[in-house]
Amino acid sequence: MPFLARAYRVLGYEIPETLVTTWAIMVVLVVASRIAVGLMLSRPPEQPPSGKRLVPELVYEAVQWLVDGTMGRENRGFIPYIGTLALFLLVANLTGLIGVAPPTADLNTTLALATITFVNIQYYSIRRKGIVAYLKGFFEPVAFLAPLNVISEIALPFSMAFRLFGNMLGGAIIMGLLYSVLPVLVPVLPHMYFDIFAGVIQTFIFVMLTMTFIARAMD
Question: Which helix (H) or strand (E) holds 77?
């Protein structure tokens, strides 16, 4: 696995490998989601899920459990966004297993995801509190702390983006160096840590931070 993402030349333009992988993941998730929704809607309400219907229902219930526990049952409207974010991050973080650079090892990807979360935080904070209470919050607990509060708020998406980016890029670089030393012998244990364990943990952290910050903004 290369520790740096490749680029493909198409019609004279260089397209980063991480961008191609991102679009491939999006296509796979859209198709899989359509199939999953069809399976869930085709089950009669009185019939318990079984067989191939069990997987999408377990995924939905897992996301619902996370949202209920972190944001409260009254905020179940966030299940589609949180579920989409979690599935995309999980698949993106695990793409190193098939020999391509994870999209999350590209700062453009992580910064885009963090920006979406940041916009959600500001939007729902204003929607829940009103613009006056929202602006007033920057002057609490004392007025002279307003500049620091503004800087802290602006720094939030950069903190989330660089945390995910740094962890995934570090793992990709280490795996690339291992493959350059051991091109034949596949380092299974490092894969289990840097691609599977770290990928799952970073997905969970990013999703939990997203839910926590949005819920706090609406409090």
Answer: none
